[in-house]
């Protein structure tokens, strides 16, 4: 008993002497004030103690002092013990510990931790999103810290209840109805669900994840019938088959669409007679191929298997992975399959458990095509050297005198490893270009003429003369990237690191690149997981041969001076399909809007809307849901000093 209050087995021990140090309880705080001649080695061992107001507070193992000390045990923060872990992005969160380099998290079915279901060490962040836990079950969790000297004691164990949405949402009706013919070329498409949709968990505008094939253009989504009916106006082409696929949808009260919903209709008087059939296989992923989306693309996936290209026909697989895509007109197609495994309403195999597959091109010519085989792809990160080795072997199939123009790494980790290294290669003799992908499904795919024309202007280089991606990634992390990641990831945003190598003056780094020479580029992007809209971005430019940081944006001590004027750059690439990058700069703190319009002046996308500090910015515009054509993008920036900047530029979407 100290000062009349009960303290349970609290001690401060000096490891050098083995003797307990003295303490002086602070009547105004929950923290014990320890006096010691050797504070760099004091270890606190504790359980629970009562503060002066009688409230019980956890007193967890901890460490104070230098890097020679053991780390302190973390303090669990959320969810509170006994609360429910609900929602697709819910995380277990704890406080950072002094002297900790990493953390180990355990989740168990019992309080004694004899039935551990998750034991993950080496975590560098102070949050963890658990997957594959049983629904409506009780779990216990705890965390401990680690550094080069060893590990701390585990934190006090908290428990939570895991909740998974029940699968009860269904589609009641659609307009046009499935298999409708002679649909008007100007019509309203609508889907009615069995319950009101929860628009807070869907993408931008609360719209569920859906796909439309061959749509020329659509208007904004509208809701009716108490959030049960979703409608969009569409401009259709004569004698064309269309497919509407609702991939994922969430209803009020945790309801979820069990499997994708497909509606087909045509503006013609009949459907084409031919079909494409085959099977989706699990491969090494172990992911079941049932209830997957299978579609046909008219262009190759451009070597980037982390998203679905525009499709002209869509179907779903049965419980065995078999599929039949009906009503396919004559043409050459690239089969693609995808599955939203983690149920978050998005298909993103790089950051979650989602899977995707692509097959060899097929030709439909007045006959059915059968026996198409698609196998789920596992995206295991590979190093820069592994990527170069795979790419070198694939280069053997290219025409002689082909030259590397640009290399990009997707969702790169802090060690410089990426699930996909994509190399843009052109050949001035054959006037052809190729995208060489190393990782995932290693492929060589031809690029279209627009991309070839753009990349041909880049300076060619020999990739093995550049610094290792791991070296540059580490430099970017230390220059501010690590702080950026932790800041936005801890807020629930999705953070990605992309690396680029080449003539960055012609890319989204155009405003930062010192000249038209060769450089490394790193771009950290934070996305809102619900809207997929960029929240913030930070970019770094490094020396080609050493990877040393030259220029950075968004960091506390900016290496590059702030812009002296407002500017809106031409988007790159242009024409584009389906994404393009728009750069702009602000010379003062401003209220900024950046919107994209169709030729009739209707807003099709709002890219920026808010207050931003002076600096250089980059945003990505995704036109995958829009029809080919000419669009305009306009920026309006109103500065604190009364400045007003308005600029309009044209971009061209070609599918």
Number of spatially distinct domains: 5
Corresponding CATH architecture of the largest domain:
Sandwich
Measured between the Cα atoms of the first and last residue, the distance is 76 Å
Average pLDDT, rounded to a whole number, is 78
CATH class of the largest domain: Mainly Beta
Give the number of DSSP strands: 50
> Main β-sheet, in a few words?
8 strands, antiparallel
- Compute the CA-based radius of gyration: 28 Å
Report strand %: 35-45%
Helices and strands: which structural class? Answer: mainly beta
Biggest sheet strand order reads 39-38-37-36-40-41-42-43
Low-confidence stretches: 1-67, 302-306, 555-561
Please provide a written account of the structure.
By secondary structure, this protein is mainly beta. The chain is 6% helix and 42% strand. Strands 39-38-37-36-40-41-42-43 form an eight-stranded antiparallel sheet. The longest helix is centred in the C-terminal third of the chain and has 21 residues, at 469-489.
Helix/strand layout:
Blueprint: E1 11-14, E2 19-20, E3 22-25, E4 32-35, E5 43-45, E6 48-50, E7 56-58, E8 62-63, E9 76-78, E10 84-86, E11 92-94, E12 102-108, E13 116-123, E14 127-128, E15 137-147, E16 150-151, E17 158-163, E18 171-175, E19 186-193, E20 209-212, E21 217-218, E22 222-224, E23 229-235, E24 241-248, E25 250-251, E26 255-256, E27 261-266, E28 276-281, E29 293-297, E30 311-316, E31 322-325, E32 331-339, E33 355-358, E34 362-364, E35 369-375, H1 384-395, E36 403-410, E37 420-427, E38 432-438, E39 443-446, H2 449-456, H3 469-489, E40 494-502, E41 519-527, E42 534-543, E43 549-552, E44 567-568, E45 579-586, E46 590-597, E47 603-612, E48 615-622, E49 629-639, E50 644-653
Parallel strand pairs: 10-17, 28-35
Antiparallel strand pairs: 1-2, 1-5, 3-4, 5-8, 6-7, 9-11, 11-14, 12-13, 12-15, 15-16, 15-17, 18-19, 19-23, 20-24, 21-23, 22-23, 24-27, 25-26, 28-31, 29-30, 29-32, 32-33, 32-34, 36-37, 36-40, 37-38, 38-39, 40-41, 41-42, 42-43, 44-45, 45-48, 46-47, 46-49, 49-50
